[in-house]
Amino acid sequence: MSLAPRLDLRQTQSLVMTPQLQQAIRLLALSNVELEAAIGEELEKNPLLEAERDDSGDVDIEPLGDVSTPSGESEDVWLDAPEGGSSDSLDVDMTAETFHHDSIADSGMGSGDGMSSGGEDVDFDSFAADAPGLGDHLLQQAGSRLDGVELAIARALIDQIDEAGYLRADILEMAMRLGVPRGQVEAVLGVVQSFDPTGVAARTLGECLALQAKEADRHDPAMARLLMNLDLLAEGRLAQLRRICGVDEEDMTDMIRELRGY
Q1: Which residues pair with 53 in a beta bridge?
Q2: Which of 224, 138, 228 is nearest to 189 (CA)?
Q3: From CA 69, how far away is CA 78, in angstroms rounded?
């Protein structure tokens, strides 16, 4: 026996179930009534399709075209092949829904099981409406805790809060514009500053951090002095800041770490 490379040419027959062939097989099994119903469903699912009717009122269906196999033979040759043409028969179950899925309806979404064709849960949260903005969120809280004149003052304050959550208004000017005492506006501002999220309606960074420190029950005298001298912290003058706060280096490091966590 000699071992040498050689090239053999073999001819085999196979059927490739292309989407066009799958569609053709499915349509061949339908009656005229079922065919019109199938066309109607496709027209409802795809708004870009349009049915054309001739003078007799029949629907003019555009041919699918020549659906060919890899060997170049037409579809009819494969469907009407003689019994001795191939050892493998074309055994197609016309009632089976195992062909090609082109739409969400074909994938089983309409069956009521709430599952996609891949077996994964459908994320219905992605279809939910957008969450309310900061202003709407604050107005909801104000409506549940205030009423009358105080609610009107709270709405005026919330209207002056920017997207970052800071209050961009002068309390005295707002009191004069609303015709109420300044103390009443400041009292309502204290209520608004207790709303969620913590630190909202602050006028400065120090006040915002102070509100968060109070929420965390960490607003002691040393922390209060630190928040009143954030400019020294920004300049890196830690020695002077430790003397003002009355803490050592280790305590100062812990306080700064806490501020970074807010």
Answers
A1: 59
A2: 138
A3: 8
